Task: structure prediction
Amino acid sequence: MLKVGVLGAGHLGKIHLKLLQESKEYDLVGFYDADIENAKKVSEEFGYKFFPTVTELIDVVEVIDIVTPTLSHFNCAEEAITKGKHIFIEKPITHSVQEAEAIRTLASKYHVKGQVGHVERFNPAFTAVKDSINNPMFIEAHRLAEFNPRGTDVPVVLDLMIHDIDIILSVVDSEVKNVYASGVSVISETPDIANARIEFENGCVANLTASRISLKNMRKARFFQKDAYISVDFLEKKSEVVRMKDVPENPDEFAMILQNAEGVKKQIYFENPDVEPNNAILDELETFAQAICNDTRPVVSLGQGAKALRVAQMIIDSF
Result:
């Protein structure tokens, strides 16, 4: 078991603490939180050991789980890495692309592993169909959320849209060519609603919409590719694959058949993959432990986290 410490005991930090305590991959040593009153409360209520400084916690663990506000990610990661500790760091990886690249360089220099908490990669609705997503040429994603003051210290692009940016970058094997975007601030100092069009070198286009002042929650993505359409509902944990294949000689009388202007006929097949329930946060933490122990590449590497942040920053700059 890997000795792990958690930096940050806010809403998400407490979830991480609970899961790490239960995990068979980790030995939870303790946590640090800058809010002393909150730290004492969490320690008394759940029995986790509270460390008075970041340094004292880093010194006695092998892995540091960084669940602090984004602005402090770099400083926490830098201290952990330079002491030879592996880091799990919540999304977005850092406040700036420069900081993200610096973390990548440090991790390489000190031979430690790092994983970024893009949890939707572990969403069972996505994992059920990701192998079916092959060279998509148009992608549409909607991530709408009811207003919550938590997270409004950053633009909605870094708060919500970055989930879909990472998902899209994981399935499109091409470099970004152009980004066009617009954003509107409604209740926060930074944009609360954003729309972005990402064009890739291979011709793929992704259209993303994110809002944190919606009346209902929605987290859906649709992928269009040659002879197939794939939909993923990250919120309801459902996915569907619609395929078009050549019509057989003797099609079923209830078969759904389309014919184009050239007379080519295609039969439509609907697939609803089995979506196995899971705890995505636990899965991302435990796969990181396995990557450390087996010396393999983490599912969401520091490089991938930096790339998602770079595209997010391109969107923000385009406003």
